[in-house]
């Protein structure tokens, strides 16, 4: 359920027990302007939204939604709809997300998904702006670190190689993952499921790193890394059934579907 912004401001203001005059003074506007917001006559200038959120100690998302859980559900639906056509129709995918941003302005998750419908260097500057907005404004570490990764990739694609390493340095080293801990510390089916998911991720990363080594190797021995990647996938497919679907996905994504 999307809430009227004026209603939300009035709700938060009364919750803090302050007058329209106090809020107006903080924002540098007239109390009549605040009154018009709360009655729905006008809306605050978009540049005031962060200041309003800061004053009340809430996120910009909370300014636009009464029901946070409902908002999160709707955001998930929007992102799922966009994801469903991301490969087949990226223009439509982007349109779905931009329509979502009209309902949930500045939403971190939608902005993060929007980056996946865009490509550098053609739209690199816009991607850099979105990434920096997420890095500076999100409270979700997963979104922040993904934005840093995409920002580094964007700099790389734009030929700004000197900015890649400083950007990546802001991402913390990975010492353990949730799935790894669940596999080691849980029991039974839960541990097995976590171990299998973690193994799939590790398999994909191993194959990807072997292909990186192939790209960075010059001359003799270059092909050995791709052969090893193929052998790893074939071993996994042969010894750990059912693993065929996962192997096919990794082979298609990283090796272009090729088999030895």
Question: Would you kindly provide a written description of the structure presented here, covering whatever features stand out?
Answer:
Residues 9-63 form the HTH cro/C1-type domain. Keywords: DNA-binding. This protein is mainly alpha-helical and 260 residues long. Among the domains are: 5-64, 434 Repressor (Amino-terminal Domain) (Orthogonal Bundle); 178-255, no CATH class. Helices cover 70% and strands 0% of the residues. It has 15 helices and no strands. α6 runs antiparallel to α7 (90-103) and α8 (108-115) packs antiparallel against α9 (124-137). The mean pLDDT is 87.
Question: What is this structure's SSE topology?
Answer:
Elements lengths: L4 H12 L3 H8 L3 H9 L9 H8 L3 H5 L3 H17 L5 H14 L4 H8 L8 H14 L3 H17 L6 H5 L9 H8 L2 H29 L7 H16 L4 H12 L5
Helix pairs in contact: 1-3, 2-3, 6-7, 7-8, 8-9, 8-10, 9-10, 12-13, 13-14, 14-15
């Amino acid at each position: 359920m999307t809430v009227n912004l004026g209603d939300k401001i009035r709700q938060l203001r009364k919750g803090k027990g302050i007058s329209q005059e106090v809020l107006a003074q903080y924002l540098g506007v007239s109390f009549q302007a605040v009154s018009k917001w709360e009655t729905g006559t006008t809306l605050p200038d978009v540049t005031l939204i962060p200041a309003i959120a800061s004053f009340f100690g809430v996120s910009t998302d909370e300014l636009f939604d009464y029901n946070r859980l409902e908002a999160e559900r709707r955001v998930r639906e929007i992102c799922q709809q966009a994801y469903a056509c991301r490969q087949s129709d990226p223009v439509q995918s982007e349109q779905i997300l931009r329509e979502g941003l009209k309902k949930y302005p500045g939403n971190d998750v939608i902005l993060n998904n929007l980056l996946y419908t865009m490509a550098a260097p053609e739209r690199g500057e816009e991607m850099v702006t979105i990434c920096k907005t997420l890095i500076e404004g999100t409270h979700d570490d997963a979104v922040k670190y993904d934005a840093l990764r995409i920002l580094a990739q964007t700099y790389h694609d734009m030929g700004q190689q000197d900015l890649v390493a400083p950007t990546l340095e802001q991402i913390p080293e990975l010492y353990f993952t949730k799935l790894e801990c669940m596999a080691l510390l849980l029991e039974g089916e839960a541990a097995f499921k976590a171990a299998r998911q973690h193994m799939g991720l590790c398999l994909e990363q191993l194959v990807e790193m072997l292909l990186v080594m192939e790209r960075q190797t010059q001359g003799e021995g270059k092909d050995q890394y791709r052969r090893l990647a193929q052998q790893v996938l074939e071993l996994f497919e042969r010894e750990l059934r059912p693993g065929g679907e996962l192997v096919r996905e990794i082979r298609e994504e990283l090796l272009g579907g090729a088999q030895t």
